Amino acid sequence: MNRIEWYFPETIDEAAALLARERTVPHGGGTGLVKSGLSSFSGVVDLAKLPLNYLKMEKGILEIGASQTFASVAENLSNLCPDCILVAALGSAASTPLRNRITIGGSVSFFPPWSDLIGPFSVLEGEICTEGKNSGTYDLSSWLANRPVQQGTLVTSVLLPDAADWDSCYYREVRVGFDYPAFTVSVVARKNGSKIEKVRAAVSGGLERVTRLSGIEDGLNGKDLSQLASLDVKKMGRVTFGRKPAGSAEYLSEIAAVHVERCLKSVLLGGGELR
Amino acid sequence: MSEVSPAWWGGIEMKGSFIVNGKKAEWSFAPDAVLLDVLRNNGHTEVHRGCGEGECGACAVILEGRLVNSCQVFAASAAGQKITTVAGIGSIHSPHPIQQAFVEAGAIQCGFCTPAMILAVFCLLQKTPNPTDDEIRKALDGNLCRCTGYVKIFEAVRLAARRMSSNE
Question: Do A103 and A30 touch, CB atoms closer than 8 A?
Fold first, then answer.
């Protein structure tokens, strides 16, 4: 019978040393390990005693400790930065009891296809800070492209260097309120009068874990708002999906493009779309 | 917290202490046991097993002040923490105002979802004493009821909120 040891380190160095062992996995309190089970592991490192449960904003840079839950982030940010897209995204993910357990660190480690974090993380150009075997700071692309970097490594925090002062729109495609989204749309923008200073848009849940809509971004950045009407957003906002219970690949691609257009209009031309 | 010792079935078990409804308890459990199983195996059958997947909410308890699905919490990670079940907020002889409101509003049919639903309402009203319908909907979004259609549950929540606000 597989013997499983639980460890409760109180320092990050202690946790990192434990995670360097074979078949030893971190647990921040979320549901990923409960779902996958512990049968393939011999050690579990509980992160509850580590100093990773914090959220701070200094000079516009948002740093979120890995043990912050989705609920805590949504609550804390709704006071600190109520318009931040993360408030809408994390505040609507899963359900109340699950939001009280899903952690930022766990979510970053798994980034499942239904993630409500990955889209906002992409448009806010977040970075992942780690300690241990592969300690360092990783942008999203390099983190997703290099899964082995996560082994034996402890996610300690995420950094969002430019999280404030955006107009934002977040949409999740669900059939009922408590559902795994088939895809999400994240749009953030800054305007100066009728000029679009910057816009970022991403769709998650496609065959690529998350897709930045660079064609739309390049077509709108630095341009006048009137430029939105001349862009074929539905064509440029298309992302490739696989078939899901929510619909065929073609259907999801079509619907996602519709919601990209709606989110852009909401953010750039006023009004709001939140679901 | 943990002592590792062989269990009777030849496996390895660990021990931990839990504070359930204000009382400390020392229990043995398998390292991969979830809190739901440990609670029920030790007499807390008021915590119900529904789906076992964190989707129905019937197993919800309050862990360190936060509503959680106990089927999605490893017992080992909850050791040493405060756990509240529905038995911890009221009894048949001294019901909590929320429990009383559920009875009076007719918000209970089979009763299977009720313990966890009441805990969800308890958490809501602690934070938001006069919730809007949208706030109620969001707070209960992880508690499924197949019987009532939720209308009377909402009425019970409003009734409880009124009474608790006015200390009726």
Answer: yes
